[in-house]
Amino acid sequence: MLCNSPTTEDILIEKPDQDINVGGTTKRIPWGYPRNGGGSSFYSGVSHKNMGTKPICWSYGQNGGGLSTNDVCIGIRTDNASINSTGRAVLGILGTVGPVTPFGTNQAGVDLPVSGGLSTGNGKPGGISFRLGASGGPGTGVNDSNEVARIDVNGYKLPSFTFAKLPASLDGYVVFCVDCNPGCTAGGGKGRTCFRENGAWTH
Predict the structure, then answer these.
(1) What ranges do the domains of the chain cover?
(2) What residues contact 151, with CB distance under 8 A and at least 6 apart?
(3) To the nearest whole number, what is the mean pLDDT of the chain?
């Protein structure tokens, strides 16, 4: 069958007469694919499976020929103009990310562990960065994303706004206003954590 997006795996490049050490970095030589410039983050390692532009998908359905369920997929890429943008280098998914759904009666769900990058020794661990796409004008251009909140060793950083840019959110939202007065009713202050209640921002 012809395929316009070939995959490769289990390719090893080795130095003759060399011992394999931890990680195989003496005998086995890291390699990657040549690219046409543009991007700045390309994988190189002693072995990997390159899917090209193919996503990986899983299908499921009810037993005995029942109804089909929605597919779940990872690796869907649609933005070929992202080039070297970190925010637009998206591992696209179809479906919801979560732990395995239990089978049986009255089974409890389990937590979904999410971690920042681990450090070694006394190095500082990485945080978790939450990003949202920026607003843009009319057209077909893809808007990049920016960090809007994060969790790290310093705590939880809320989304930040000036008073003039506070959104007309639904009740229940929490933001940090960088120039709000103590009551979150005007600008010109030193900053305040603001809560959206009864259609207004307050503290």
Answers:
(1) 8-50, 52-95, 146-203
(2) 116, 127, 128, 157
(3) 89
